[in-house]
Write a structure and sequence with these properties.
Layout (H helix, E strand, L loop, with lengths): L4 H17 L4 H15 L4 H16 L4
Protein name: DUF2304 family protein
């Protein structure tokens, strides 16, 4: 499953807020982004994808 644009934008907003408000240094954010790219190409990618899909399904099943 490819992340939708809205999920990517949400994660980007979270990272920007962490950089500005929580003291996350831009270099640390860059390292986290690079880790994400390397994880996407690793053997753990299907497991991470299944986990994120199940979290998304769980959130979408919540009735407000």
């Amino acid at each position: 499953m490819a992340l939708s644009v809205s999920a990517v934008l949400l994660l980007l907003v979270i990272v920007v807020l962490l950089v500005r408000k929580a003291g996350l240094k831009p270099l640390h954010a860059l390292v986290c982004v690079l880790l994400g790219f390397y994880l996407a190409g690793s053997n753990m990618a299907p497991t991470i994808d299944d986990f994120s899909t199940s979290i998304g399904d769980m959130i979408s099943a919540i009735d407000f």
